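Blinded run. Sample ID left blank on purpose so nobody reads anything into the name before looking at the predicted structure. Input follows.
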Amino acid sequence: MVTTRSATGKTPKKVTHPDFIETVQRRKRTTRESSEDIKPANAEITVVPPNGKGKDTVITSTEDKHAEFDFGGPIGVSCMMVGFPLLMWYLWICTTYYQGHLTVPANNETMQDFLLRLYGHFLDGAFPDLKSWRIVWGFLIFEAILYVTLPGVWTRGLPLPHLNNERLPYFCNAVWSFYSTIIVAAVLHITGMFPITTLIDKFGSIMSVSIISGLILPFLLYFYAYITKSQHRMSGSFVYDVFMGAILNPRIGIIDLKMFYEVRLPWYILFLTTVSSAVRQYETYGYVSPQVAFLVLAHWLYANACSKGEELIVTTWDMFYEKFGFMLLFWNMAGVPFTYCHCTLFLANSAPSEYQWSVYYNVFVYFLLIGAYYIFDTTNSQKNRFRQQMYGTLIPRNAFPQLPWQTIKNPTYIKCKNGGTLLTSGWYKYARKIHYTVDFIQSLSWGLITGFASPLPYFYPLFFFCVLSHRAYRDIQRCKIKYGDDWEEYERQCPYLFIPFVF
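Blinded prediction complete.
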């Protein structure tokens, strides 16, 4: 149902399974959960038909409070809150001033002199000047205006136990926002009001503003939660609660801040930065190299995928359970757009003559990206549409591109003893975590297109590989407890984890 922002948010969709009940077993949570179909511990959910008929929603949870420390507790999160920003500045210095090589203290250079050298580079190219503050916060305000003015669709999240099982409404119009952003950026560049090349020319300063903002805002949200008495599931440790967050569903009008930061900021900034690099290369050399064009395509595909599937994230673990603190806010505002971009920075700081690969190599990497993206898009679509079919909340949309096999007709699945379901058709019959595999392949292609002269373009795929491997292991252990014998049957019917017929 396409609506405007003034719509009531009602979604008159018929529930496919009005009596669907899922009971989730208690499990130990050690790190940030994945965006899988996860329900609260010890919770029983009965889905409510939108027409109001049938059973009422019932959720009972014995763990709607802080249970244990993650990430090494207060000491661990303190190290991350200090270490992440320093690592980001260090990697930027390496790719900007040292041709993408990791710089270390030179012979006879003391550690103090080495740190002073790095600090000099920071002052030279990453000092957060007033113009950079205007760029970053002007962009945030602009995206917020698009959020509340453009048309979109309404959907609802999972029932929240601390709100008497209320299902919060979410307004989704990221597709409109994404393409409106592109049009406005093009107009500003063509008219000379704001050349898009500014983003790559002032990358260091813009990154610093995002880092500083990402450090300050979690503290402000923490104190705001206490002032408004909206704190939730607190641990009692100040630094830990700033890191994990104190407020669960921060909102400004219809703007859900978690969804706003997760979809619009990181991927739009990354895409626009890569476009900025392409435009500067064209202005300098008179053409855009196949490698830079590849990154424009890759980052457009990802930003567009996040935008067109915005309504699918409202039932994920991040939206349902994770609070809005340093972990989510900083990573989306600074971490993703300014660490996943080292492939772009490496090419932007190198002449095209330094990375002229063969036609066969370029074609290989292009096909690797497009093939992986097709499976990535359709697997996530199959999973989320199947999930929405089970809950009766499927919203048909025609956002570009609509690829073949995004919806499974007559899907097969295991009906589990606990009331849950395990999908055994579509791409998932070939590998249970095939969406992880192709997501990693996409990230790897971003590095491969730059060649092998620098390790920094491979920071993202290496980091992502570690995240996905740990996430898959954690999810398997959780599911063994959650589904019991049904999980063994699932593994029998779908024996491969990552690579069909191999592993």
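Unblinding after everyone has recorded impressions. The mean pLDDT is 84.
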